[in-house]
Amino acid sequence: MQLRDFGRTGLRVTPLGLGLAALGRPGYLNLGHGQDFQAGRTPDDLRARTFEVLDAAWAGGIRFLDAARSYGQAEVFLGAWLRERRVPAQAAVLESKWGYTYTAGWQVQAEQHEVKQHSLATLERQWPETEQALGRLPDAYLIHSATLESGVLQDRLVLERLARLRAGGLRVGLSLSGPGQAETLRRALELRVEGEPLFQVVQATWNLLEPSAGAALSEAHEAGWGVVIKEALANGRLTARGPQLPAALAEACRELDSTPDALALAAALQQPFVHTVLSGAASVEQLASNLRAVGLARLPGGLETLAEPPAHYWQTRAGLPWT
Predict the structure, then answer these.
(1) Could you list the residue ranges forming a coiled coil in this record (predicted)?
(2) C-alpha span between 110 and 106 (Å, rounded)
(3) Of 85, 159, 206, 229, which sits 20 to 30 A from 221 (CA to CA)?
(4) Separation between Cα atoms, residue 130 and residue 98, nearest integer Å
C-alpha cells in the first residue's frame, strides 16, 4: 500500500489501518466475535492472536495502528509487538485514545465493560499509562467518543491540557460516536488555541448504513485534519455474518466477485475525505478478506440506498450483544 499524507499533520499513513478493539479484550460487540475465540480467551491467548494479526497486517502493508486505554490489554500487546518485532518508531503511525476505562475484569458477560469519563483526572491518569504500555509516545492521541453531551469540548481544564500536549509536539484529536457526530465535529473545528486549531485528527463512524457524518468530515479534511474511519463494517452487519445482507450489497458482491466486508471497506476508502479506514479484524483470515478492499477500484451504483436514519442505526448498535 502506498503512503498518503495524513492531512496537514506531517504524518503519512496507509489507506487501510488496523484497530485493536476486538483483539485486546475477550468480549466485544462485533457480530460473531465469540466464535473467533473459541480456542481460548486468556490474556496469553489474546496476546498471541494479536501478534498473529499484527504480523499479517504488517506483511499486508498496513502501517497505521489504533488502540485505546479501554481496549483491555490492546496497548500492552501492541507495545510488546513493536518491541519484539523491532519496529522503528518512524515506520508505523500509532494512534490511541483516552476517556474510557476498561472495567470488565476480563469477563465476557460483565455487567459493564467500560466507563466513560472525560475529566482532567482521567486524562492525567491515562496519558502516562498509554505511553508506558506502548513504550513510546503515540503519534496521535484522541478523546475517546467525544460528544456534546459529555461536556468535554467545554471543559477548559481538559482543553488547556490537550493544548499543552499539542505544544509538545503531539497531534491531538477526537473520536466520535452516536447520531450527533457531525454536530460534535463542527464544534471541535471551532476550537482554537492562540489562533490555531486545537485538534488535528478525527476518527468517526462512516459506513454504508450510517454515512451522516460525511459532510462534516469533508470540512475537517478541508481544514487539514487527518480523517480516520472506524466501524466501516457496522460491527459485522456489513459482513457475511450479518443477519440479513442488504440486497444492494449482495448484488454488488456478485457483480464484483467480492466479499461484503471488502466491498464495504472499499466504499469507505473511496470517500474523498478519507485518509485511512480501520480494519477491525479479529483473525488473520478476516484481515486477508479485508485487505481485498484496497484492490476494488470501481463500485456499482445503488449502495447509497442502504443508509439508515442515524437514530435507528445507533439504536441498533446499542442493542448488539457483547460476545
Answers:
(1) none
(2) 8
(3) 159
(4) 9
